[in-house]
Write a structure and sequence with these properties.
The chain is built from one helix and no strands. By secondary structure, it is mainly alpha-helical.
C-alpha cells in the first residue's frame, strides 16, 4: 500500500511539473508578445 502511494505521489509530481513547464512556456510567449506590443506603442509615441 505504501509503495503504491509513493509511486502515485511521484506520478502526480511529474504531472504537476509538466503542467508547470507548460504554464511557464505559455507565460514566456505571452510576455514576448506583450513586450513587442509595448515596443510598438512606445516607438509610435517617440515618433510624435
Amino acid at each position: 500500500m505504501h509503495a503504491f502511494f509513493d509511486s502515485e505521489s511521484c506520478y502526480i509530481s511529474i504531472l504537476m511539473r509538466k503542467k508547470l513547464g507548460t504554464i511557464i512556456a505559455i507565460n514566456k510567449v505571452y510576455n514576448v508578445i506583450t513586450f513587442k506590443e509595448m515596443k510598438k506603442k512606445w516607438q509610435k509615441k517617440q515618433l510624435c
